[in-house]
UniProtKB/TrEMBL annotation:
Pfam families assigned: Bact_transglu_N, Transglut_core
Source organism superkingdom: Bacteria
Organism field: Paenibacillus agricola
SUPFAM superfamilies: Cysteine proteinases (SSF54001)
Top-level taxonomy: Bacteria, Bacillati, Bacillota, Bacilli, Bacillales
Ranges where the Transglutaminase-like domain occurs: 172-241
Name under which the protein is recorded: Transglutaminase family protein
Stored InterPro entries: Bac_transglu_N, Papain-like_cys_pep_sf, Transglutaminase-like
């Protein structure tokens, strides 16, 4: 499917600020499941963009605005062609073979960043107590990940007012509610607790046709999990919507947790009083 994304980030400051240095991670990936055919970035005030790939292979645009300004706007547009992820996991290795691969030195060394806990995905006694509800069985890691995804979706309440950008897994387990970032961090932590590599994915989720064709509903960027199924590879799971990743999902990038893949981040000199507005429009072109 061909999907068009428009993303506008607007910072408004109470007083003029200056020496603003920023990084953007808003370029859709091109991989086995999607191809980015067009992408553009504009800024107000106008600034020169420097682009590079970070450690995880995410496309980064950086820029600076040195002169005083009371507003900064970042606009991105992209056209991406997507497809469903492979169903090969349903016919993967037997459980014994999966375990052997998972415990092997090659996989451990290659994906060590996605096996170790982080501040957002701390593995503690509360997490172990929660994870025992989802024991790993002979069905293998793919079925286990699907069950975990569905379990998190039913165990927690989606509540945009309950958490914030710095919420950690321990807070989510205590509150029993949160948003896509919290659901994703929790599933990652449980995966890592059993030795399964898992990473945080930032992107977009097309749901326009689920709203009767209306484009007036509020949209936002989204987050989900990619877990490494031994013998199969990386597969996407969305615990927020209890869905495996399909053509509706447009991936921007991945990292160990949210901190690695913040869409827009930066520093500046001036007042701390600011207002942030983000507008996202995800449309199906054909």
């Amino acid at each position: 499917m061909k999907i068009e994304i428009s993303h506008v980030t607007r910072y408004s400051y109470l007083e003029p600020v200056m020496d603003s240095v920023n990084e953007l991670r808003l370029t859709p990936r091109t991989n086995y499941r999607q191809s980015c055919y067009h992408h553009e970035v504009t800024t107000e005030p106008v600034a020169s963009l420097f682009t590079y790939e970070d450690y995880f292979g995410n496309r980064v645009h950086s820029f600076s605005v040195n002169k005083p300004h009371k507003e900064m706007v970042v606009k991105t547009k992209a056209i991406v062609v997507t497809q469903d992820q492979s169903s090969i996991a349903k016919f993967g290795l037997p459980f014994k073979g999966q375990l052997e691969l998972l415990k092997g030195e090659h996989l451990q060394n290659r994906y060590i960043e996605f096996l170790l806990p982080t501040v957002y995905t701390e593995i503690n006694d509360d997490l172990y107590a929660y994870s025992v509800k989802y024991p790993l069985g002979e069905e293998g890691f793919y079925v286990w990940a699907k069950n975990l995804m569905s379990g998190i979706n039913s165990d927690f309440i989606y509540d945009p007012t309950a958490t914030h950008v710095n919420t950690q897994v321990g807070d989510t387990l205590r509150l029993r509610r949160g948003v896509c970032q919290d659901y994703t961090h929790l599933m990652i932590a449980v995966c890592r607790s059993i030795g399964m590599p898992a990473r945080y994915v930032s992107g977009y989720h097309f749901v326009g046709d689920l709203h009767g064709g209306s484009t007036d509903f509020e949209q936002a960027s989204h987050a989900w999990v990619e877990a490494h199924v031994p013998g199969t590879g990386w597969l996407g799971f969305d615990p927020t919507n209890n869905a495996e990743v399909d053509w509706r999902y447009v991936k921007l990038g991945h990292g160990r947790d949210y901190k690695d893949i913040v869409p827009v981040k930066g520093v500046y000199r001036g007042t701390a009083k600011q207002k942030l507005d983000v507008t996202v429009d995800v449309r199906l072109l054909d």
